[in-house]
Automatic annotation (TrEMBL):
Organism classification: Bacteria, Bacillati, Actinomycetota, Actinomycetes, Mycobacteriales
Species, as recorded: Mycobacterium deserti
Stretches that traverse the bilayer: none
Record key words, sorted: Pyridoxal phosphate
Cofactors named for this entry: pyridoxal 5'-phosphate
Designated name of the protein: Threonine/serine dehydratase
Domain (Tryptophan synthase beta chain-like PALP): residue spans on this chain: 19-301
Domain of life: Bacteria
Annotated InterPro entries: TrpB-like_PALP, TrpB-like_PALP_sf
Amino acid sequence: MPLVTIDDIRSAATRIRAFVVRTPLIPALWADGDRPLWIKPENLQSIGAFKVRGAFNAIGNLDESVRTRGVVAYSSGNHAQAVAYAAAVFAIPAHIVMPRETPAIKVDATRAHGAEVVLCEAGQRERVAADLLEQTGGVLVPPFDHPDIIAGQGTIGLEIAEDLPTVDNVLVPVSGGGLASGIGTAIKALCPQARVIGVEPELAADTAEALAAGHRVDWSIEDRNRTIADGLRSQPSELTFAHLQQVLDGVITVSENEIRAAVRELARRAHLVSEPSGAVALAAYRRGETPPGRTVMVLSGGNIEPAMLGEILVG
């Protein structure tokens, strides 16, 4: 199947420039001497996560006559907020399907942007979204299974390559695979010497298993829901898996305790608030399994319930 190219990502960067934060690379001065570390803090985006990039690229690339019909999305949280925010900017209606177990902070933030939120049971969001599409006549903006979404997320890789062209390792959270697909495509095109390494929780390690097997595998939603990293409970699509097979040099899996420790370290040492899903790259770095060299970790989001953050910080 056709894969996203660096030209697609460059076009996305132009399309979304007015709507997203060009996040800096922040040096982690306390990192290991032989593995200097930089943080790409996507928690600083307007909605607190990288998803805003793909949402603005996908909605901005729609023909205006189509876009005015409104959009439908399904998401455990960050994509929901991103689509709701982008829809508000374009002054179009948005209907967002979210699982009932989604943290309240993400549901409330999505509603705050003016979207109509429809809560559903675990594993039912695609079916509910299909019903909404039929009812509203809107356009589906999927969380990862679309070239425009992948290209939008890939603008992070474009920025990393521009700011640190000598990067050796890039650590990227993996769930549905849109983020890693886009960043990997950009890094492989612009920094071919660099290794792109995916990171996922041990309790939702379907991508690691799938890449080892050479084909997608299915983990039950009950299994994937065990991880504290609620943003990493999706599985790659055919489209994203095809990208991941091309651009990932490996996958590191991390434990729940390692994820919690990474959230604490980011708060205490970098003064950055990270949700568990956003901290997995630092957890992987701390395992010491990445080769020596200049390493960038993508902090993908910072939307965490205050009560959970407090519990983790004192844990």
